[in-house]
Amino acid sequence: MIMSRNPTSGDRVNVLALTGGIIHTGTETLHGHAVLIEDGRVAGVMTEADVPPSATPHDLAGDHLAPGFIDLQVNGGGGVLFNDTPTCETARQIANAHRSFGVTGLLLTYITGPADGMARAAEAVRQAMDEETRVPGVLGIHFEGPHLNPERTGVHDRTLIRPCNDADVAKLTHLCDLATGCTLVTLAPECVPLAAITTLAQHGAVIAAGHTMAEPDDLAVAIDAGLTGVTHLFNAMAPMGSRAPGTVGGALADDRLWCSIIADGHHVHPASMAAAWRAKPAGKLLLVSDAMGPVGSTAPTSFTLGDAAVQVGEGRCITPDGRLAGSLLSMDAAVRYCVNTLNIELDEALRMAATYPARAINQGDRRGEIAPGFVADLVQLDPALIPKATWIAGQISM
Ligand SMILES: [Zn+2]
């Protein structure tokens, strides 16, 4: 249920004061402080004694308050997959499902598909970000494919994976121009002309390497062309060996690259994840869910992805030949995994779920922190780190 606590009609703008919680701003942890929300933005962070008496109080009852989670890779949720029906209504179902897990910003992810499907997906996201048909929480689109390495397809449809020619670049740049929000493109840099990376980056796309066999040299030239990130580190990429560093070695060794990671305990071994966390500088390892349709729905036991029948159970989605097909992960569960299994400090785990992904898509100046002027996208978590409420642009949902 969405309740407006910040009506825009009337002479007086209502100011909301969130009090009585532990506030994780993204840079520090505050006790005895309040967050003021006004007109959809954070108006101030102050001691509770300094809260203006005119503000409407909202008691956090000792819970944690953090920047809302930002998930750069959401294939589905609430029982639907974006690829199956890329419409604004599907976007709404998915965003609503993930909001209950603390997600206040997400990129709808369209995996390798036909050109007309990509166009429909872009149009759906444009509608989801339009004032009239707005879906709270949608920040843009993530095209994962189709310009991937055929040797690292994962569950993507091999027949639709192809090299990137001039016409593909023109189509993708057109889709970037059409989109009003962020466009993230995951591609295999060794399969794509460097000029294509530069052109896409110039049109505002964020470029990440994924489903790739790129070696460090490939990554280095792609970074010069505009590559900034790596999609689901370790999965569907050349692994790290002693004399063959692979994509993983290149991604870990280059401080400029952010790396997303699927922290569900199935995609990446906890020791590998701990190694990645130690290797990357602060701010460059971030959480994504790679969630599929069953996340946030009443437990279907299977779904289809292209021609593959995917079985759901034991915390994962798996094809008959044993490949992982996305995840059953939600961002709050990823945060709990970081804290409880990897012993990552809560503050840092929260940053990996919000602050760092915001920066990866160049929105670190307005999202991912609780600071004056930032969009009031927030999550309230109980002591067990279960989400209890979210605010998107100051509008609460519990
Ligand atoms: Zn993937």
What's the SSE blueprint?
Layout: E1 2-3, E2 15-19, E3 22-24, E4 29-30, E5 33-38, E6 41-47, E7 56-59, E8 64-67, E9 69-74, E10 76-77, E11 80-81, H1 88-99, E12 103-111, H2 115-128, E13 138-144, H3 166-178, E14 182-187, H4 194-202, E15 206-209, H5 216-225, E16 227-230, H6 246-253, E17 258-261, H7 270-279, E18 285-287, E19 302-305, E20 308-313, E21 316-318, E22 324-327, H8 331-340, H9 346-353, H10 355-360, E23 378-381, E24 387-392, E25 395-397
Parallel strand pairs: 2-7, 3-8, 9-12, 12-13, 13-14, 14-15, 15-16, 16-17, 17-18
Antiparallel strand pairs: 1-25, 2-5, 3-4, 5-6, 8-23, 10-11, 19-20, 20-21, 21-22, 23-24, 24-25
Helix pairs in contact: 1-2, 5-6, 8-9
This protein binds zinc ion.
Zinc ion is lined by residues 144, 154, 210-211, 232, 236.
Protein model, in words:
There is one protein chain. This protein is α/β, with parallel strands linked by helices and 398 residues long. The protein folds into two domains: 3-66 and 369-397, Urease, subunit C, domain 1; 69-360, Metal-dependent hydrolases (TIM Barrel). 25% of the residues lie in helices and 28% in strands. It is built from ten helices and 25 strands. It has helices at residues 88-99, 115-128, 166-178, 194-202, 216-225, 246-253, 270-279, 331-340, 346-353, 355-360, and strands at residues 2-3, 15-19, 22-24, 29-30, 33-38, 41-47, 56-59, 64-67, 69-74, 76-77, 80-81, 103-111, 138-144, 182-187, 206-209, 227-230, 258-261, 285-287, 302-305, 308-313, 316-318, 324-327, 378-381, 387-392, 395-397. An eight-stranded parallel β-sheet has the order 9-12-13-14-15-16-17-18. It has a seven-stranded mixed β-sheet with strand order 1-25-24-23-8-3-4, covered by helices on one side. Strands 6-5-2-7 form a four-stranded mixed β-sheet, with no helix packed on it. The longest helix has 14 residues, at 115-128. It is globular. 53% of the residues are buried. Mean pLDDT is 94; it is low at 1-11. Zinc ion is lined by residues 144, 154, 210-211, 232, 236.
